[in-house]
Design a protein that fits this description.
It is a single chain. This protein is α+β, with helices and mostly antiparallel strands. The chain has one domain. The chain is built from 4 helices and 4 strands. A 4-stranded antiparallel sheet has the order 1-2-3-4, with helices on one face. A hairpin with a 4-residue loop joins strand 3 (24-27) and strand 4 (32-35). The longest helix has 12 residues, at 39-50. It is globular, with a radius of gyration of 14 Å. The termini are far apart.
Length: 92
């Protein structure tokens, strides 16, 4: 099983761990997601984004916007929904 961890350009430590089925577990100290992509592809994309300055949507063009957002900010979809939850019952 392969694994690596890096600090992204925004100062967030991201941990990548290969799973037995070939998918990759990505986590921060507080949250995690699983993506159906090989860890070596993620490692290469992380390099292009964080070292060469490639735009994240180009470096990780195979990930969903939500998966890219997690790698960038460490915040999951549920986390964003909690942050921007409307208090008056009407979504804005």
């Amino acid at each position: 099983m392969k694994a690596f961890n890096r600090v992204n350009p925004h100062g967030i430590r991201i941990f990548f761990t290969e799973l037995l089925d070939g998918s990759t577990h990505i986590r921060t100290l507080k949250n995690h997601i699983i993506v159906n992509h090989p860890i070596d592809r993620l490692r290469q994309s992380f390099y292009y984004w964080s070292i060469t300055g490639m735009f994240i949507q180009d470096a990780f063009d195979y990930l969903t916007p939500d998966e890219r957002e997690f790698i960038k900010t460490g915040i999951t979809v549920d986390g964003w929904n909690r942050i921007f939850k409307s208090t008056d019952g009407v979504e804005k």
